[in-house]
Design goal:
This protein has 94 residues and is mainly α. The protein has helices at 2-24, 32-54, 69-74, 82-92. The longest helix is centred in the N-terminal third of the chain and has 23 residues, at 2-24. The radius of gyration is 15 Å and the shape is globular. It binds zinc ion (ZN). Residues 60, 62-63, 65, 80-81, 83-84 line the site of zinc ion.
Length: 94
């Protein structure tokens, strides 16, 4: 699972790096929503890496239940189980 996280992180960093270059070059068509979404996901991946290190990876941060392999496989940076994520998205509309 750590490998999947690392790969996703590298992809994101590469994407963000590309966006930064476009910004510097004055390409005004940068999609800010995309950028902030990627930044958010990058933060989630960093948090997931910290959880891997302290052993709490794969455990829902809200209710403490197992997140489940299938969900982690689809979304390696997931910090919540499906139910808590759904509730979270409803609360914060993201
Ligand atoms: Zn939960």
């Amino acid at each position: 699972m750590r490998r999947a996280l690392e790969q996703r992180r590298e992809t994101l960093v590469a994407e963000l790096g590309g966006d930064e270059v476009r910004l510097r070059e004055g390409g005004g068509d940068l999609e800010e929503a995309d950028l902030s979404r990627d930044m958010g996901e990058l933060n989630e991946i960093e948090a997931a890496r910290r959880r891997l290190d302290d052993g709490s990876y794969g455990i829902c941060t809200d209710c403490g239940a197992d997140i489940g392999f299938e969900r982690l496989h689809a979304e390696p940076a997931a910090a919540r189980c499906v139910e808590c994520q759904r509730r979270h998205e409803k609360t914060y509309r993201r």
